[in-house]
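Is adenosine-5'-diphosphate placement plausible here? Inputs below.
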Amino acid sequence: MFYRSRSNLALWFTLTMGSILVVFAGVLYYQAVLNELGNLDRLLYKKSRVMAVNAKYDLRNKQLDLENVPLLGSNVAPLGTELVYARWYDTKGQLVQFFGIIPRAQVTAIPGYQTLKTTLYSSKEIPPAIWLRQLTLPVYQNSSLIGYLQIATPLVSVQNDLARLRLVLLLTVPATLGVIGLAGWCLGGIAMQPIHDSYEQLQRFTADASHELRSPLSAITSNAQYGLISQSTDIEAQRQRFGKIFDVAKSMNNLVNNLLFLARHAGRLSPESLQEVNLKSELVQIADEYATQEAVQHLNLTYTFPTTSVIVLGDANLLEQAVVNLLSNAFKYTPAGGQVQLRLFTQSYWAVIEVIDNGIGIPEADLPHIFERFYRVDKKRSRKTGGYGLGLSIVQQIVSAHSGHLSVKSVVDKGSTFQIFLPIK
Ligand code: ADP
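Reply from A.M.:
I modeled the complex. Tokens:
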């Protein structure tokens, strides 16, 4: 699926960029043609002007003495390499004299520029069927038209320049298209990467969640089944079974709630859900609630809060959930008689909530993974404490949603320190 999407992205990218490139190359070529012809036309015009101005007009024969103008010579050859012919027409457009290639009987004197393929009788030097650019210039003397001067030059150099340009375009356009295709493929890969990652994460998450739900469900089913088929009248045994079903259902409920929580609170918090939260009073409240709880009776719990309030922008309930998760882990993984500390302080622009315990600690190899969903350092010890490996993922998600970050330090059998950093308002 991802491979196909990536190929499609690359294809569309190549097609779009390729069309732009081809249009661009077309415009470039068209501009080059106009440029080349423009230059040639200017040159032709200049030449014809020089000839018209310098040649003497023979009034009697109605001829222009072209032979003695600087650009021409005494016969064909002096027409030079640039001019193929020069012709003089009278005012009615009748050919009067010519130099260069012998014209056909029918030639016209339409003023202006023309591109034509020569259909003239060719001399030895000029190959047949050559493309020419021709200019027919009306010539005036004392403001009255005396005739038309027509000169032509071969388009060979223009054609050669354009052929070179065509060759360059022909080589560079496909090569650029190839590069665009490759870039499209790479960009497609980069664009698809986050989708690919989150898809894989989702797949893993669904697989893990179903796996985790399977064991409690089978525990409920087997206990219920046994209760149904058992002939025993022992009320106490029946109560124990119901008790087991109840416990497992409760922990499953917990798991489902955590999963829903993770799904619901993915991503950053919306600005409208942000409120000013006084972290100090929130933590004091949590400490008060824990003071009476059985979970901490066997532990030595201490609190260190600053004298002034520490305000952050966020969701008070979510932040409370994050601290509660860290504290309950500290309680779970610290043996009786151990010590758990909850601290709040500020560090430059950050408010830091610190939960320290001197419990069993986390092996170094597990530290990079403990924030992953369903990751448990030791399944057996978590199972005993009822954990599914979602508590720290939830903390991580909440902290990220508040634009904060999380850090952990831990040494096996010495204890762990978790720190939540939140930007101070
Ligand atoms: P669980 O619900 O299993 O506790 P968590 O995501 O909260 O899942 O924690 C992941 C793992 O990290 C736990 O399985 C536990 O082994 C380890 N852990 C978390 N907090 C502590 C702690 N304070 N001391 C020792 N181990 C801890």
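Short version: Residues 80 and 299 are 111 Å apart (CA to CA).
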